[in-house]
Amino acid sequence: MRAYVPVVRQVPLRDHLRGYWDDMARATSEVCLDRLEQAVEILLACQETGRVVFAIGNGGSAATASHFACDLAKGTRRDGPPTFRVVSLTDCVPLLTAWANDNGYERVFAEQLDALASGGDVLVAISASGNSPNVLAAVDAAHARGMTVIALTGRSGGMLAARADLVVHVPSDRIEVVEDAHQIMAHSLCVAARERLAERAARHGRTTLRVVSARRPAR
Q1: Distance of CA 209 to CAs 58, 80, 82, Å?
Q2: Torsion-angle region of residue 100: left (phi > 0), alpha (psi -120 to 50) or beta?
Q3: Which residues of the chain have pLDDT under 70?
Q4: Residue 114: which of 147, 84, 90 has the closest Cα?
Q5: Is 124 left (phi over 0), alpha (psi -120 to 50) or beta?
Q6: Side by side, which strands form the sheet with 85-88?
Q7: pLDDT digit string (tens) for 141-166?
Q8: Of 5, 102, 181, 194, whose CB is crowded by the most CB atoms within 10 A?
């Protein structure tokens, strides 16, 4: 007697691809632009007063934090000071592993903020779940130092949504969609900040941007 072998219908790859892009379009269309605008205003106020922007995240969100710091520091520069002072706390592997080894992984960001941050600085906390212990500990440390916390979240928003000063939420339970949307958010924040700085420079007679146009050289 032959063993029963269930017939599994193979879904065309294009259907999987289209489903992802549809999910992405739906989630990004529901992101609150009012909150993104508030985030840009907070970042610009931080830049104008010479304070520092810090960015944190884990896994894919760590990559987004690092990318955001790069673009905010370099991609928004114009002739003449001031420029954004921005630090990603995800980039120094020896320091991260030292804090994780000695004090626990949940302290890897909070300890860096305790050493580097001051009142008036801004923390951009990126977490798809909103429940990462090291991100939550960093938010507590940031508030203790008088910092403003901007959170990029997904899914339910987690505990991070209740602790941040401003929350920009991606309405999706799909982690890949949330992470992609966070990168789009980060780019949009940098583009909006750059355009506002260009407008200010033009009003003060400085019309030449270090970044000449929105189109960057190919990498």
Answers
A1: 33, 9, 13
A2: alpha
A3: 1, 79-81, 206-219
A4: 147
A5: beta
A6: 85-88, 52-56, 122-126, 148-153, 166-169
A7: 999 999 999 999 999 999 999 999 99
A8: 181
